[in-house]
Design a protein that fits this description.
Elements (H helix, E strand, L loop, with lengths): L6 E6 L7 H14 L4 E6 L1 H4 L9 H15 L7 E4 L4 H11 L4 H5 L2 H9 L6 H4 L1 H10 L5 E2 L6 H18 L7 E2 L34 H9 L16 H13 L2 H13 L4 H28 L1 H30 L5
Parallel strand pairs: 1-2, 2-3, 4-5
Helix pairs in contact: 3-13, 4-8, 4-14, 8-9, 10-13, 11-13
Length: 334
């Protein structure tokens, strides 16, 4: 007798363009998960409102994120792909879980402190309660596994806390979600300028986007930070060179990686050749995703069909959860 698949939930904000870090840090794992779990993947449009996106840009951004996820390999027949705002039950459970969240703990969240520092003119209540909404995205589907990076560990811990508080106060309903990734496959994709990881909002020239054309990809890699070399065989490899090799490991043939590792060790490395190889291999990797995503974005009827089908499944599950939560709280008068 077949056992029911465990539920996985993850979302991505429709702000900025998806990049290589999104693909190898998240989407690649999603593609594997879709065959093993009951997956709910959503576009977090409500979350994006905390930074006040232009209303005329939001619909196109949502469509692009959906298209890029599908182009990368997510199969709408295997997963529920939906938009957060299509599930009104999330907003109602968000209200109820807010009653179990405390201002003091929300103010201590590092990402909230960062936002206060970076945008003091826009410290809205949505930013403060962001972890509550993030928790509800997970709890509403009663997910047991959440593919998250290290920077989201505290948000997931808060989701576990809210689940515990609800279960203790009202009765068992929510599983306590756990962080999940395949072994050590959680990758940090380095920025081309050597400063941290690739980002949607930081230096555009240091980030390779899934929408970049061939020329742009090659030019960005040409300008990537390298090293002059020490002149001594076996010298320690600087981070900038290691970053390029790490990128090669993702898109190039193993023998190319081996060749340039040996060339560094022998101090015979030619960075121009290395960047040329990486640029060509990166173009071969990105181009099919980019072109498929372009085609999908032109087919808005298809994307809306996918959104609607995903929302119907996600909403059916969410409605059951909300009904049980309200019953346990005592909000059942008829």
């Amino acid at each position: 007798m077949a056992t029911e698949k465990e539920i996985v939930v993850s979302g991505i904000r429709p702000t900025g363009y998806l990049h290589l870090g999104n693909y190898f840090g998240a989407i690649r794992n999603y593609i594997r998960m879709q065959d093993e779990f009951n997956c709910y993947f959503f576009v977090a449009d409500w979350h994006s409102l905390t930074t006040h996106p232009d209303p005329k840009d939001l619909p196109g951004n949502v469509m692009r994120v959906l298209a890029e996820n599908i182009a990368s390999g997510l199969d709408p027949e295997k997963v529920s792909l939906y938009v957060q705002s299509d599930i009104p039950e999330i907003a109602e459970l968000y209200l109820l879980i807010n009653m179990l969240a405390y201002v003091g703990e929300l103010e201590k969240v590092p990402t909230f402190k960062d936002k206060v520092r970076l945008q003091p003119q826009n410290v809205n209540a949505g930013l403060l309660t962001y972890p509550v909404l993030m928790a509800v995205d997970i709890l509403i589907q009663r997910a047991v596994k959440v593919p998250v990076g290290k920077d989201q560990g505290q948000h997931l811990e808060m989701a576990r806390n809210f689940a515990q508080r609800f279960n203790h106060r009202y009765g068992d309903l929510f599983p306590e979600p756990e962080a999940f990734n395949y072994g050590d496959n959680l990758l940090r994709i380095p920025s081309l300028d050597g400063n941290g990881k690739m980002s949607k909002s930081e230096n555009e020239m240091a980030t390779i986007y899934l929408a970049d054309d061939d020329e742009k990809i090659i030019n960005k890699i040409k300008k990537a930070k390298t090293d002059s070399g020490s002149g001594e065989s076996g010298a320690p490899m600087p981070e900038s060179v290691q970053n390029l090799l790490d990128l090669m490991k993702l898109v190039s043939a193993p023998d190319a990686v081996t060749f340039y590792e040996a060339a560094w060790n022998n101090q015979t490395i030619r960075f121009g050749d290395m960047k040329k190889q990486l640029g060509e291999d990166m173009v071969k990797f990105i181009a099919p995703i980019r072109e498929r995503a372009k085609d999908l974005q032109q087919d808005t009827d298809y994307l809306r069909k996918i959104m609607k089908a995903g929302a119907e499944k996600a909403r059916a599950n969410a409605a059951q959860t909300l009904q049980q939560a309200k019953k346990l709280i005592g909000i059942n008068y008829y």
